[in-house]
Design brief:
The chain is mostly beta strands. The chain has three helices and twelve strands; from the N terminus they run βββαβαββββαββββ.
Length: about 210
């Protein structure tokens, strides 16, 4: 497994290639990720690197976390994310990872929390087709319709696609291309759309499968 970066989704825009082709990109602001803990087989049973990013007022930090940051010798930040890695050689507490961890043209996976849609019906949530849009079908145009079985099994199976809460789930979009890395402004420009709303935290990792 490889190390990634935690950033914040800024929004979408477009850039033009040298040939004049318009490329839609999502802008991710990646403030330096500071190493707050290094986990090893001996101490934790697995190998991982914990990072924090951004900043947080001291009054908003709990005492246990304040001690955690002090032990690592870093300023308090928001959140705590882990990256499972094969080795922690060369990684030290307090060290920083920046956008130059990635390069132009690299293929990455981006994870985030999708936009919450609230309670939705089957048509919107699962792409069900509607019933007949006729006068005889009164008030049932977008209803789910029959969900049951026969006398056997005489019940509705668990996991049946129905109306319910939609969105606000962890989503990963795979195999996106890094179009540009702006080290001066700590920006990553990634081709296409990524999960989540503006200002949401996202995790960028090297692609698991290409």
């Amino acid at each position: 497994m490889s190390l990634g970066l935690v950033g914040r989704k800024v929004g979408m825009t477009r850039i033009f290639s040298e040939e004049g082709v318009s490329i839609p990109v999502t802008v991710i602001e990646v403030e330096p990720n500071r190493v707050s803990q290094i986990k090893t087989i001996e101490t934790d049973g697995y190998v991982a690197v914990q990072v924090v990013t951004g900043s947080r007022r001291a009054s908003r930090v709990t005492r246990p976390m304040a001690g955690h940051y002090k032990k690592a010798g870093i300023e308090p930040g928001r959140g705590a994310w882990e990256f499972r890695v094969d080795s922690v050689d060369g990684i030290e507490l307090g060290s920083e990872f920046k956008v130059d961890l990635f390069e132009n043209g690299q293929i990455v996976d981006v994870s985030g929390v999708s936009k919450g849609k609230g309670f939705q019906g089957g048509v919107k949530r699962h792409n069900f087709r509607t019933q007949d849009m006729t006068h005889g079908n009164s008030l049932s145009h977008r209803a789910n319709g029959s969900i049951g079985q026969n006398q056997t099994p005489g019940r509705v199976f668990k996991g049946k696609k129905m109306s319910g809460h939609m969105g606000a789930a962890n989503v990963t979009t795979q195999n996106l291309q890094v179009v540009s890395v702006d080290a001066e402004r700590n920006l990553l420009l990634i081709r296409g759309a990524i999960p989540g709303a503006k200002s949401g935290d996202v995790i960028v990792r090297p692609a698991a499968k290409q």
